[in-house]
Amino acid sequence: MKEHDQMLNKTAQGPLSDIRVIEMGQLIAGPFCGQLLADFGAEVIKIEQPDGGDPMREWGREKPHGRSLWFPVIARGKKSVTLDLRQPKGQELARRLIGTADVVVENFRPGTMERWGLGYDALAALNPGLVMVRVSGFGQTGPYARRAGYGAIGEAMGGLRYVCGEPDRPPSRVGFSIGDSLAGTFGCIGALIALHARARTGCGQVVDSAIYEAVLAMTENLVTEYAAAGYVRRRSGSSLPNIAPSNAYPTRDGTEILIAANQDTVFRRLCQAMGRAALADDPRYATHTARGENQVELDQLIADWSGTMAIAELETLLESNGVPAGRIYSAPDMLADPHFAAREAITRIADPILGELAMQNVAPRLSRTPGHVTRTAPLLGADSAAVLSHLLGIDAAEMAELRAGGIVGGPAPAAVPPFEAETVGTGA
């Protein structure tokens, strides 16, 4: 118990350090919510099935030492407790753990928690202040509620997939699981709002975060344009219709640069940088509406100019004229960029098996109570004994019985103790 208390003290350094979260989700949407809360100091206890744990432990293209490089990011700062939720005893232990918590996060298909006796009504009867974050494809109510709903489906039905890609090709997907992450982000926001409300009322509540609605919330005026004017926004490649100039433009050395100069004053500065100041007063380009109507012609005009310059020269010229511009980065570019380094946008954390890992740092940045990445992902079940002993008073003999019955799995404490990875880079 002393070692566990020391671990709590070392990780209790963020603004949410007084919050305990039980994370019961897997893959992306629910665990991303838990990642955000852990980044700001919440004690996040991740419950996993003993036989393999979260499938995210196996996800990812590259697997050094046979281990995922995605799981160390999405499970950073968390603790792993293994409980077989298919068995009544495992459900009972989960219920008792949730009784000590402020927040429980789950992203199972609606009805699963109720089937385990872990629905909100049952949990709130034991813990009236509990906030339950429920992330699902289509929400907890409505005719689609019980459908399986992965992030890609939510992105499609939420409106994102229809507008992504080139206009003469089938819809494209975004290169990240953005639907899942958005639903997790809204779940995190909802949890913080619910905790704020609880401070006044003493009562918890359910946060219902649907993937398709999280995507829908990002679609700007897409629905309104159709409902009020009959316009259906469609795929437009690398630009947005009637927003010009704002596109990727070629350079002499075979790369591209993003230039965003659609505001009147910024467009004037771009024209000066191009050596064609008169364009800013040309009726075809002088206003936002005019530039939108002549978008194709204007983009070609800028591309003809940008293609005569190397990207470094062009970037310097645009910066000196106050024109927003940037290179299109891949991971190697991020790791080499001095601005990323100066702001420690990428941190490096030691993992006991994989060694030093570079990953995105905590966002957003708080001036007085910043978040920190305290450790990478735990080994499966590494914290079972410490957590169950500390929170539920389970002794070594009972723990041995739980292991023998398959209720609790993972490594025995003597074999693999709970670990804390040394922080190589500093927190945000």
TrEMBL record:
This is CoA transferase. GO terms for molecular function: CoA-transferase activity. It holds the Pfam family CoA_transf_3. PANTHER family: SUCCINATE--HYDROXYMETHYLGLUTARATE COA-TRANSFERASE (PTHR48207:SF3). Keywords: Transferase. InterPro entries: CoA-transferase_III_domain (IPR050483), CoA-Trfase_fam_III (IPR003673), CoA-Trfase_III_dom3_sf (IPR044855), CoA-Trfase_III_dom_1_sf (IPR023606). The keyword Endoplasmic reticulum does not apply.
